[in-house]
Amino acid sequence: MTTSPPAATDELPEAACWKLLRQAVIGRLAVATDDGPDIFPINFVVDHGSIVFRTAAGRKFSSSTGQPVAFEVDGYDDGDATAWSVVVRGRAREIRDTDEVIEALSLPLFPWHAGPKPRFMRVTAAQVTGRRLHVAGGSTRG
């Protein structure tokens, strides 16, 4: 009996992607600006099949509002020497409806930065993809 090495990359089903998104603490929001692409680290929550984050007026807000964006989280599992990445592609919009703002205020989402972050943004997923990579040689941590 012969065994073949595990596949180098496994595509993750969408349900597994959402599970990993719910477990992540920080992600990266990628936007297109007049100066080219930009990436912002953000804390977030998953809410109703979307990503919700807080922000202030500024480059992140103006570059994402109503625009196509990508949101990415990743991680590493020491237990089975795998790395994973999940990408959500969609459009970002400011949460402005009163009932939706009240609902967003009840989410466990608090700014990490000392400055005010009064605006809630929602990235509605148009596409969710993920992959798990089997790390050659396993963990490099001692």
Give a written overview of the molecule.
The chain has one domain: Electron Transport, Fmn-binding Protein, Chain A (Pnp Oxidase, Chain A). The chain is built from 3 helices and 8 strands. The protein is an alpha+beta fold. The radius of gyration is 17 Å and the shape is globular. The protein is 17% helix and 47% strand. Strands 1, 2, 3, 4, 5, 6, 7 and 8 form an 8-stranded antiparallel β-sheet that branches. The mean pLDDT is 89.
Distance between the termini: 34 Å
- Which sheet architecture does the biggest sheet show? 8 strands, antiparallel
Q: Low-confidence stretches at least 5 residues in length (pLDDT < 50)?
A: none
Strand content: over 45%
Number of E strands: 8
Which structural class fits the helix and strand makeup? alpha+beta
User: pLDDT average, as an integer?
Assistant: 89
State the helical fraction.
10-25%
Task: Set down the secondary structure blueprint.
Layout: E1 9-11, H1 14-23, E2 26-33, E3 36-43, E4 45-47, E5 50-55, H2 59-64, E6 68-77, E7 82-94, H3 98-105, E8 119-134
Keywords, separated by commas or semicolons:
142 residues, alpha+beta, Pnp Oxidase, Chain A, 3 helices, globular
